[in-house]
Amino acid sequence: MTATLDVTQVFGSNVFNQKVMKERLPKETYKALIKTMEQGTTLPSDVANVVANAMKDWAIEKGATHYTHWFQPLTGKTAEKHDSFISPTADGSVIMEFSGKQLNQGEPDASSFPSGGLRSTFEARGYTAWDCTSPAFLKEDAAGNVTLCIPTAFCSYTGEALDKKTPLLRSMEAVSKQAVRVLRALGNKSVTRVAATVGPEQEYFLIDKKYYDQRPDLMMAGRTLFGSPAPKGQELEDQYFGAIKDRILAFMKDLDTELWKMGVSSKTKHNEVAPAQFEMAPIFSTTNIATDHNQLVMETMQKVALRHDLVCLLHEKPFAGVNGSGKHNNWSLATDEGANLLEPGKTPHDNEQFLVFLSAVLTAVDRHADKLRASAANPGNDLRLGANEAPPAIISIFMGTELTAILNNLAKGKKAESAGQHVLQIGVDSLPNLPKDATDRNRTSPFAFTGNKFEFRMVPSSASISGPNVVLNTIVAEALDEIATRLEKAKKNLDQECAAIVREAAVKHSRVIYNGNGYSEEWVKEAKKRGIPNIRSTVEALGYMANASAEKLFEKYKVLSKGELHSRYEIYLENYVKTINIEAQCSVYMVKRLFMPAVMTFTERLAQTISILKSVGAPTTVQKDVLARVSTHLENASDKLAALEATLKKAQAVGDILAKAEAYRDKVFTAQADLRSDIDALEQLLPSEAWPVPTYADMLFKL
Ligand code: ADP
Ligand code: MG
Questions:
Q1: Which atom of ligand 1 is nearest to the CA of 331?
Q2: 204, 464, 585, 607: which sits with the fewest CB atoms below 10 Å from its CB?
Q3: Does residue 257's CB lie within 6 angstroms of at least one atom of ligand 1?
Q4: What's the rounded Cα separation, in Å, for the pair 356 and 498?
Q5: Does ligand 1 have an atom closer than 6 angstroms to the CB of 331?
Q6: pLDDT over 70 (residue 15)
Q7: Which SS3 state, helix, strand or coil, does residue 142 take?
Q8: What domains does the chain contain, in order, with CATH numbers?
Q9: In which element (H, E) is residue 70 found?
Q10: 381 near 316, Cβ under 8 Å?
């Protein structure tokens, strides 16, 4: 029997949270720190020294020897450089030290992080600054090392954001400010802050490490670049929510424990649709903590998997022919008094407020669908969006039948009548009870209202959730800003103005509402008619994140300057190019070094067999037939390999980054897919033991 886990004791045991702060800090320091955390300002140095010292003592008691400023560069991953606490003394020994300055600020040599031209290498220093709204925590590894991690923002010396956290914090500020204005105008005088809340559900695959180790494509590209489908896929729908195997449960138990220690509220786990696919969901929190935690989730999944001789694949489409992985980014707005602003209320006033905030989201998403789409773009998602398991590349909102009916009626100037019976007058009447629409389970909508929050389902599984939330927060901030201005002017005619706001949003922006099957061809046509963008590729989507409209929006709300925006555009385009380049090079490598030699050995053996059979007068028709078919695919593969190498060379020579990315998308990527078809056909013709890499059946079904 293993000891039972006291979750309440384990949870947050490695977090320097408010409870620990209260225990360990002098009262005045504690108060000053809480104030700083609430206001998001920097900690005065005297206070910082006391906090740092308490933090160090706490960490050392828990076994820590090192600390790190933990940050989120534009790679989308996290970065850390460990420094020990040691400080030499005159007698040749050391003491353990950690100052307020070291807590507040770090200076990593940042020249090797992407900056998209924001910082030239000769002035390579960036600096990291503690984001005290996200608590410090300890990371433990399997070897027993414990490191104190300080969540930080990462900027250049001139103050430009070089990371994913800084714009996120700015966008939270923007949406808070505008939401508070709206609430004030509606008569709420007590709310001082509104937080964007996020609960990101994370999908992932697990495969046996011994298979992973034999697949260069998984190791280099994170996905299979070759592989013919297993005889069984997901058609029996027997994996989704199926009984979880012991080996996987053992992994999940360790994962939960590690996450709980770091204060990540891992809540739900289950089998996903594809074989060997799983999901975990945390309890939602404020956007920046949710973003930090999602990074920890991805990192911990990968680490813990290895302890179980498994490998965790976070790629959006590791296997062709079965579902890929995404993240469902559940998003809402909550006041500092704990009210969810997207929760339909019970009183007329609550309903009015709800409809006003709902209109803001409706307006924001319709106006800036292109930016939302861009925020979910990455090369992995190109293989997924629009395929039948993922939301289509078209942004639409699922509102459910009740809400849609209400908005439609309002748009038509009728008194909002829902379900034919109830007449709604904004500010006077209550909304009818809104049943959580069962149809939101159809999963075909990229942006679904699920009762008291919106679920953005397009987010790539391997990416930081920062980008999508920066966009969401900022576009909603803009819509709320306009609403607040109207309401502030309206003064006495508040109810009428609210009604006008909701009606106008319904008239202008209802086109983005679609409750039908988002996967259908019909919707593609309908969306075109409605003038809703259908942005199919990453290269195309990225163009919308740095155009004039994006510049205006993000500058206005001080979320990203023009320079910062363009640096991101460049970095993501470069990342696209590099990713497809790696995939192409890896394809060439595998075909030349693994597949062609294996096929040639096989044909040679078969040819020998044929001549032996012939010499004894035995029939050779079957052998000859196989040989002929294999040889044809081999020749095709050889031609296509040459074609891939030629296009790759051409693409590599293109100078302009956009033209280069387009060349990779239109030429290299397609040449590689073309080559794959012959290799996959060969896999089906050769005996299992002659095939040099593990098959889909091995990887997906032998867990
Ligand atoms: P499902 O999507 O399967 O119905 P839930 O409704 O439980 O599951 O929620 C899924 C995710 O949404 C969870 O991470 C949950 O914490 C999060 N969530 C719930 N309420 C909110 C909210 N107000 N803001 C942001 N996320 C939320
Ligand atoms: Mg969900």
A1: 25
A2: 607
A3: no
A4: 7
A5: yes
A6: yes
A7: coil
A8: 7-162 (3.10.20.70), 170-420+439-560 (3.30.590.10), 577-701 (1.20.120.1560)
A9: strand 64-70
A10: yes
Query: Which one, of 673, 601, 599, lies nearest residue 630 by Cα?
Result: 599
Mutate to test the pocket of ligand 1, among 240, 259, 284 (most ligand atoms within 8 A of CB): 284
Distance of CA 174 to the CA centre of its chain: 22
**pLDDT 10s digits, 560-583:** 999 999 999 999 999 999 999 999
Question: Which residue type occupies 420?
Answer: G
From the list 96, 284, 325, the residue with the least C-alpha distance to 197 is: 284
Whether the CB-CB separation of 685 and 629 falls below 8 Å is answered with yes
Q: Which atom of ligand 1 is closest in space to residue 334's alpha carbon?
A: 23
Which residue is listed with tokens 């400010």?
A: 177
Residue 449 Cβ contacting ligand 1 at under 6 Å: no
Report residue 572 as tokens.
């993501």
Closest ligand 1 atom, residue 451 Cα: 6
Compute CA 62 distance to the chain's CA centroid, rounded to the nearest angstrom.
Answer: 32
Of the chain, the percentage scoring pLDDT greater than 90 comes to 77
Give pTM, 2 decimals: 0.95
Classify residue 205 as exposed, middle or buried by CB count within 10 Å of its CB (0-12, 13-18, 19+).
buried
Cβ 282 under 6 angstroms from ligand 1: yes
- Residue 453 near ligand 1, beta carbon < 6 Å: yes
Q: Is 327 in the pocket of ligand 1 (CB under 6 A)?
A: no
Please report which ligand is nearest the Cα atom of 334: 1
Tens digits of per-residue pLDDT, 53-96? Answer: 999 999 999 999 999 999 999 988 999 999 999 999 999 999 99
Q: What is the pLDDT of residues 457-514, one digit of tens each?
A: 999 999 999 999 999 999 999 999 999 999 999 977 898 899 899 999 999 999 999 9
What is the pLDDT, as a whole number, of residue 221? 98
| Cα separation, 26 vs 602, whole angstroms | 76
Which residue do the tokens 């608590």 mark? 135
